[in-house]
Amino acid sequence: MTTILPVSKAASVNPLKSSQPLGAAFAYLGVAGAVPLFHGSQGCTSFALVLFVRHFKETIPLQTTAMDEVATILGGADHLEEAILNLKARAKPAFIGVATTALVETRGEDFAGEIAAIRARRAVELDGTEIALAKTPDFDGAIEEGWSKAVVAMIEAMARREVLSRRNARRVNILPGSHLTVADIEHIRALVEAFGLEPVVFPDISGALDGTVPERWIPTTYGGTAIDDIRSLGDARFTIAIGEHMRAAAERIQAFTGVDYALFRHLHGLKAVDRFVALLTELSGRTAPASIRRSRAQLQDALLDGHFHFSGKRVAIAAEPDLLYGLASFFVGMGAEIHAAVTTTGHSKVLDHVPCEAVKIGDLGDFEAMAEGADLLVTHSHGRQASERLGAPLMRVGFPIFDRLGSQHKLRVGYRGARDLIFEAANIFEGARHDVTPDSLNPFLNREMTDGRRAASANRQH
After folding, report:
1. Closest by Cα among 5, 11, 23, 288 to 144
2. What is the CATH number of the domain that holds 354?
3. What stretch or stretches form a coiled coil here (predicted)?
4. What is the model's pTM?
């Protein structure tokens, strides 16, 4: 079993993780007609907004209750109610997702009770708008926990709690983790549809953060999972969760509706994708289409072509737990060695299965110290300084990636994604290789000569 090394210092040096509220807002952005609302100070929201905008290069409808000093002491219920009513009047959202921050969590307010009272007192004004609350203090957890808590909160707030005697035999719920890109989610949807099934992706950032430019200004998200689809999650035949942090959401759907689920910890390699395709074959009663078989054959060829470049390479990875596990499994499967592994939080059970001796809960300062001697660094854009100092190439993954364009359209799951991941990493290894030259192989070239040999050489030249 992998050893989990806890945080060993009081200060964070070049932080690796982003906060729980950001993760919750991330999930809320995957719902159609939504506005995420941070219950806390304006600064908390501004920081998350900057990261979202730099990563996605899109307008982000993120709002705040803007708690001030007085509200922090006396309580923020009035600020929360005012913010919700203002959003309803101005943006007319179908859904408002509330995420708490450390400021109000430390004070210990009854957030659920306050929202219930607001909804009862303002029933007429808030008609047609759903509200969900995720308790996500900044001082605990990271993006994964925030995302998971927000998805569970939306299920509890909107999904119908009934076990149906008859369900839609073609409908499948897909619960993607926060580590999947827009391209990943679109590809997973296409795979499911290729078997004649009807996927309901929740949350669906591929609809809301995929770079679509609307014809007019829209103050809410303009894509994502429809509210009606969230309400009818129990109509599906089956639920597929991707990432350990989505287990809680899948279990909640099962508890409310009786819909069974399967969990895939990652979809980065041949074996994992084979299992995914086998499940789709079972659910649909159809064999894999020719296009999927062709993609599998291309991945097999890429495995043969690429494994020479990975053998013996030392890879250092810093990422959220599920992304760390998936990438570490991929690199080890290709013959590489996990030289260092750093993650954001120790809450995930998947860390026990990361294929390396130890995983450090820490920051990019810890990562840089542990990654000395690595052939490749794998983390987000904040790892670029470590890459420069260590002289090792950087493969950018996760969130945020703000110094490269198109990060959300990088495909790394499924047969095609695994094939592209092999080529991406192998090309980085190839580009960083220092070939031996004929001159460096000559032991007599530029050798040191004694004074006597220098004199003899000089006489011959004369």
Report:
1. 23
2. 3.40.50.1980
3. none
4. 0.91
Query: Measuring CA to CA, which residue among 402, 405, 404, 409 is closest to residue 181?
Result: 409
Tell me: do 229 and 283 sit in the same domain.
yes
Please write the tens of the pLDDT for every residue from 199-245.
Answer: 999 999 998 888 778 788 889 998 899 999 999 999 999 999 999 99
29 in Cβ contact with 205 (< 8 Å): yes
Last residue of a domain, one of 121, 140, 159: 140
Domain co-membership, 317 together with 368: yes
Q: Which of 383, 354, 381, 389 is nearest to 367 (CA)?
A: 383
Give me the number of domains the chain comprises: 3
Buried b (16+ CB within 10 A) or exposed e, 371-401: beebbbbbbbbbbeebbeebebbbbbbbbbb
Q: Which tokens is 452 given?
A: 């006597």
Q: What are phi and psi of 22, to 5 degrees?
A: -65, -40
Residue type, 396: R
Confidence of residue 67 (pLDDT cuts 50, 70, 90): confident
Q: What span, in angstroms and rounded, lies between the C-alpha atoms of 178 and 395?
A: 19
Give the range of the structural domain holding residue 127, as residue numbers without chain letter: 18-140
Residues ≥6 apart with Cβ < 8 Å to 312? 335, 336, 337
